[in-house]
Amino acid sequence: MVRIGLETVLQASAYSPIVEQTDIEKTSEWPATRILVVDDDAELCELVAEYLVPEGFRVDSVYDGVQGLERGLSGEYSLIILDVMLPGIQGFEVLRQIRTKSRLPIIMLTARGEDVDRIVGLEIGADDYLPKPFNPRELVARIQAVLRRSTQLPPQAADRIVLDDIELEVRARIARCGNLEMELTSLEFDTLAAFLRKPGQVITREELVKTVLGRELIPLDRSIDVHISNLRKKLGPSPDGGNRIRNVRSVGYIYVIQALSRKH
Q1: Contact 228, 195 (CB under 8 A)
Q2: H/E segment holding residue 180
Q3: Position with higher pLDDT, 233 vs 260
Q4: Whole-prediction pTM value?
Q5: How far is residue 81's CA from residue 61's CA, in Å, rounded to a whole number?
Q6: What is the CA radius of gyration of the chain?
Q7: Residue 237: is the preceding peptide bond cis (ω within 30°)?
């Protein structure tokens, strides 16, 4: 195979603007993070590693879904970069099986224009996605954003949030509805926490994307809407039968306090 440059393979994508890294992430103080790349394109894996290693990451690569699933469940990695199209086991099935046992952060790689792939991946539990081809700086920024929200609490975050029949233990990442523990993805948990911190207030899509996904809202990006749709299904109706999360057209969403819901 003829070797080509990194910028040729990982082209800048009009779909994804650059998200700036924090100062500490640009310094040697940011600890090395072990990442698993699962893609059947060996040259792409090599080129991704060539870019990520100088940025302070440790990178391993495997080239099929079977190895990806095995290594992904080994507990050795902080994040997985997972392609959708894989030999052995498809990327979606790898994601599905990992999600039954682990909350390990996963970024999906999808073909440009394949909106269905993005939606399915987010519904199964992917933390984020990037369409191919992508800007390597954007890949680094997405990795940092996902790791930040999976390992850090918001400033002055309450350890326990209770509203109506919903209870969150923030540090333990446990959510309960009516005293029953819920199975939420990391992003669904963060989305619910964002709503419960501002009950009865309209939260714009821009604010939700920045708070939950750790980046700016991208035109035509409906990922936050997919997460909210999944969250609604898992929460079900409120005890009074109303919707817990309502859409405010052209603005964002609001988590309805039951007392307010009964007044309307």
Answers
A1: no
A2: strand 180-181
A3: 233
A4: 0.65
A5: 9
A6: 19
A7: no
Pairing mode, if any, of strands 128-132 and 106-111? parallel
Residues 63-94 pLDDT 10s: 999 999 999 999 999 999 999 999 999 999 99
All structural domains of the chain: 6-151 (3.40.50.2300), 185-263 (1.10.10.10)
Average model confidence (pLDDT) across the chain: 82
Helix (H, G, I), strand (E, B) or coil at 263: helix
**Count of CB atoms situated within 10 Å of the CB of 225:** 15
Half-sphere exposure of 86 (CA within 13 A, CB side): 27
**Residue pLDDT, tens place only, 149-175:** 776 544 445 588 999 899 999 888 899
**Cβ–Cβ under 8 Å, residues 175 and 181:** yes
pLDDT digits (tens, 9 = 90+) for 191-226: 999 999 999 999 999 999 988 888 888 887 888 998
